[in-house]
Write the structure tokens for this entry.
Amino acid sequence: MGLSALMARDGDVAMARAAGAAGIPFVVSGSSLTPMEDVVKANGSAWFQAYLPGEDDRVRALVARVEKAGFGTLVLTADTAVLANRENNQRAGFSTPLRITPRLIWDFAIKPRWVLGTFLPTLMQGMPHFENSFATRGAPIISKQVARDFGRKDHLNWDHLALIRDCWPGKLVLKGVIAPADVAQARVVGCDAVILSNHGGRQLDHAMSPLRVLPEARAQAGDMALLIDGGIRRGTDVIKALALGADMVLVGRPFLYAATLGGQPMVETAIEILKTEVHRNLGLLGLRDLSEIGPTLLHPV
């Protein structure tokens, strides 16, 4: 999740530590406000997710930084070729770059707990920057350069993915594809996994849910790991995804909400809630462990 430290105090580190304590992966966003080096110190098993432009030198430079930081898994997000028309952000008055408006000031005034507990302590350490966009520090969140830095990436293509595969020694994951043909192409390039995703429904209007194409994607993935995100909120969501062919699911907003409410302890509680739901649902389905989950659990509609 990007901008986590703006919503929860030291949010990236809090979630990274909670994930490490629970023994589950944590993915730090390329649009985070916490340097990747600090996150990997908090959780040595963390993954790094990158937004990359289609420029070979910048690709190599960021990949080199990620490797030097000590990450073992690199996630390339491919579904942000251009900035989306995020109407919900516009209605909420949230913009990139962040603009100080009367509405924003009013929102601050009615959220004193967040202002005193998150915003001011963060601001006292200096203006937050996009720390992981490039090989060096990115722009501050109020800079007009933010739109430029996170703008067009429409030159990114399969050749760049092949370049990353050549220079990245760790696990490589491609995120943001839905078409089964793209899953097959990712396997040809040498990816270790694919994350089926429509970016939380925040990119292309009317993009289908990745859950709908899971069986077809599974057929194309072969022995490559197949992950999915988007709308995972309950234990039954996890089980449905696994039954349709996913190897893992990713969860974003619920854990960020938890971090906003109570930092690392609350994230650990949220993880335990989801874990308990999965185990309870297995029992209610008459199953003993995850290995028994399969498509026979589902009734096609």
